[in-house]
Amino acid sequence: MNNWNETQPIFVQIRERLTDMIISGSVNEGEALPSVRQIATDLSVNPLTVTKAYQSLVDLGVIEKRRGLGMFVADGAQNQLLAHEREAFLKNEWPRIVKQIKALGLDIEDLMRHETE
């Protein structure tokens, strides 16, 4: 059973799982990814939802379709995804975090002290 985040489309959540697999190295560059049908069965979702997640990664150029063989992690995918995720974090998440840090009156020393706890 999956605990889906109701505020985010399922295909985005599947894409995030695939991204995490590539960034963490649990699937290396040049290796095959699980088939659309396998993921759809494992997650109890429509295969079209999985296809949409895969297509978004194909559009980024981090996975490639090999006709008759499936989906494979492209060369350079890990570094490309890291760069993409960093950029997305800095654009989408960081401004909100900075705003909250300022609102709470925290400074770098407070943050660093709590990082090591």
Structural overview:
With 117 residues, the protein is mainly alpha-helical. The protein has one domain (10-115): Arc Repressor Mutant, subunit A. Helix content is 62%, strand content 7%. The chain contains five helices and two strands, in the order αααββαα. A two-stranded antiparallel ribbon has the order 1-2. A hairpin with a 3-residue loop joins strand 1 (63-66) and strand 2. Helix 1 packs across helix 4 (77-104). The longest helix is centred in the C-terminal third of the chain and has 28 residues, at 77-104. The protein is elongated, with a radius of gyration of 18 Å. The mean pLDDT is 92.
Tell me the span between the first and last alpha carbons. 34 Å
Approximate strand percentage: 5-15%
Oligomer: single chain
- CATH fold category name: Arc Repressor Mutant, subunit A
CATH superfamily: Winged helix-like DNA-binding domain superfamily/Winged helix DNA-binding domain
CATH architectural arrangement: Orthogonal Bundle
Can you tell me the overall shape?
elongated
Q: What is the count of distinct domains?
A: 1
Tally of separate helices: 5
Q: What order do the helices and strands follow?
A: HHHEEHH
Tally of strands: 2
Features of the shown structure:
117 residues; mainly alpha; Arc Repressor Mutant, subunit A; two-stranded antiparallel sheet; 5 helices; elongated
Task: Please render the helix and strand layout as text.
Blueprint: H1 10-24, H2 36-43, H3 47-60, E1 63-66, E2 70-73, H4 77-104, H5 108-115
Antiparallel strand pairs: 1-2
Helix pairs in contact: 1-3, 1-4, 2-3
Protein name: Putative HTH-type transcriptional regulator YhcF
GO molecular function: DNA binding; DNA-binding transcription factor activity
Organism: Maritalea myrionectae
